[in-house]
Amino acid sequence: MEVWGSIDLLEGRVVRLVKGDPTNTVIYSNNPIHVARKLSTLGLDGLHIVDIDAALGKGRNTEIIKTIVENVNTKTQVGGGIRTLEIATKILDMGVNRVVIGTALFTNHKLVSDIISSYGPERVVAALDYGRGGVVYKGWCLKAHMSLIEGYNMVKELSLKYVLVTAIERDGTMTGPDIESLSKLAPEDRAMTYASGGISTPQEVSELAKLNFRGIILGRALYEGLVPPNELISAARKNSLATD
Questions:
Q1: Mean pLDDT score of the chain
Q2: For residues 9 and 65, is the Cβ–Cβ distance under 8 A?
Q3: Domain boundaries in the chain?
Q4: CA distance 68 to 218
Q5: Cβ distance 86 to 111 under 8 Å?
Q6: Active site residue ranges
Q7: How confident is the model over 21-74, as pLDDT tens digits?
Q8: CATH number for the 2-243 domain, one of 3.30.70.20, 3.20.20.70, 3.40.50.10420, 3.40.50.1260?
Q9: pTM assigned to the model
């Protein structure tokens, strides 16, 4: 199982939002480049970069992201406010491996098709963020009026190969992943999915690995230092090998 480290950018700083709330923010660094370099030495499979300002329509951290890509020797994927082909093209052409599309899944299917036509389905990740009320989008401000399963059906209709699923009520809380909902996903859906939200211990990582998720995204678990990162990564590798 792959392990990616999250770098959330807000006003040029590395932060974590608790449950996606911009007013409840933990600030980790004023130097995103340093953070990216440090994370890239841990043996992660990639860096998951989220431009929170762009997601909220309050500006962009494009130059910081470009500098990160130029300074790390690892895969990167970028999400947050990618709602036009121009923006997607700019990000992919700077060397980012994949763009993460959220809002456009619900508002602009043509954009998704255009990105796939230009770059291929391997360069796109579909973001399905969900809470008790179902799937949400546009910086988690709007409800899509569909269940998580319905979201997966839509993603497959769009011919996308990867999904990032985030339990927003657990995101940034380190209270554990939403195993109840995640375990109900079909095996073929789990195989295309990166799970995110609340993952913080090797035991939780092992549980997701045994469910054969494609990967996980870690945020606060890497920054808080309560568990050595190598133990989290080892749990993903060990259990994945055991189930192959």
A1: 90
A2: yes
A3: 2-243
A4: 18
A5: no
A6: 8, 129
A7: 777 788 999 999 999 999 999 999 999 999 999 988 899 999 999 999 999 999
A8: 3.20.20.70
A9: 0.91
